[in-house]
Amino acid sequence: QMYLEDMIVHHQWAIDMAVKLLQIMDAQDPTIRVTAEWWAYRQSLREFANAIITTQGQEIEQMKEMLKAKA
Fold this sequence. Notes:
71 residues; elongated; single chain; mainly alpha
């Protein structure tokens, strides 16, 4: 039980960091010179962050269900 509870916290931290990354990327920074390379890197990071949010969220729900079933 403690393992699942700790993993839920761990996964939520990953989601929180991915959300923060997306927020930072969406902030307009006039000092950033936009190049094709930067844009491709930014898109890769955005896809990665969104994948973390989706998969880790699904796994949190699965672990919560496992905890409910055990109760």
